[in-house]
């Protein structure tokens, strides 16, 4: 177990740009967009004259509808960019997980250590299925909390109560838990894809992306062509 954890840590430090920096950049983008929206709110063409008028209109909506809207945005709309980028990060990480080791010959060094090939493959799979999703999820939650704090300060400055307006009616923990479970469930469901990417990464002489995409595309085209030919009598 200690060897496996050491290998997982190695995968994190070798790919911390993708696993850590990328979600931090996405969180920063969200914060910048929120701040820009608050600062330039009055310059947009809409029916509200000011943020105070908008908060009053929001407070007039039934709390149940507001809570449902907050739950849906917390679960689907707000983390959309995190989820989309996570897919690409995991995809290209697995595609280069074994190819990069073979390319720079570092595989010879790692083979000299007391770690089996099974543990090495398991560490890469755990990094893709657990480490990357959990890091993205944690940074998403922290970003959401910071945005809620910013909005709370703005609402307080406008003379409204942020707790009754949105903080006390949103099922935040339920939405965050569902999002994390969905990440882990999708990782289990995607195991065949992950296995294919690691297989391609283990033998592709160059351009592993081409080897990963071209065979499924060829098989799909052949299947469509054969089914089309079967329509003739």
The biggest beta sheet is recorded as: none
Percent in strands: under 5%
Helix content: over 70%
Q: How many individual β-strands? A: 0
Give me the secondary-structure topology:
Elements: H1 2-14, H2 16-39, H3 51-59, H4 63-77, H5 80-97, H6 99-103, H7 106-111, H8 117-157, H9 162-167, H10 172-189, H11 191-203, H12 208-229
Helix pairs in contact: 1-8, 2-5, 2-8, 4-10, 5-8, 5-11, 8-10, 11-12
Q: What does the model show?
A:
- The chain is mostly helical.
- The chain has 12 helices and no strands.
- The longest helix is centred in the middle third of the chain and has 41 residues, at 117-157.
- The protein is globular.
Give a short summary of the structure:
This protein has 233 residues and is an all-alpha fold. The protein has 12 helices and no strands.
List the keywords.
mainly alpha; 233 residues; globular
